[in-house]
Amino acid sequence: MARVKRGTTKLKRRKNVLAQTKGYRFNRANKERTAKEAIFHAGAHAFRHRRAKKRDFRTLWALRINAAARPLGFSYSKLIGSLKKASIALDRKSLAALAKDHPETFERLLKQLA
User: Fold this and answer.
1) 114 pLDDT higher than 80
2) Is residue 11 in a domain?
3) CA angle, corner 111, sides to 109 and 114, nearest 5?
4) What confidence tens digit (pLDDT) does each residue in 15-53 have?
5) CA–CA separation, 64 vs 28, rounded Å?
């Protein structure tokens, strides 16, 4: 069998791994083995936090809606229940945007429910 020299392939792989850990601290940035481990953990966290980001935003929207609805005599749960009964199909994201950016429109919507 022919001899395989893998100098260029190995160097390319090493450069790629170290490029991905640019900005990391200590050995994680410049030692290949620890850099590989850091990349593996970073990928796991990135995957998990892409899922968690959706939860976080839904919580934020609920907070914004509740904060805007309270002075107008509604609680968050009562407001969502009223919207469902009135067959108003606005999602929480758009309701939160209305509450934050267009409070007068949000107020008109709540007056329509009451």
Assistant:
1) no
2) yes
3) 115
4) 999 999 999 999 999 999 999 999 999 999 999 999 999
5) 40
CATH number reported for the structural domain that contains residue 21 in this entry: 1.10.1900.20
Distance in angstroms (rounded) separating the CA atoms of residues 104 and 107: 5
In a domain, 2, yes or no: no
Strand (E) or helix (H) holding 29: helix 27-30
Contact between 38 and 24 under an 8 Å Cβ cutoff? The reply is yes
CA dihedral (35, 40, 41, 42) positive or negative: positive
Whether this model's pTM surpasses 0.85: no
Measured CA to CA, the distance from residue 94 to residue 100 in angstroms comes to 10
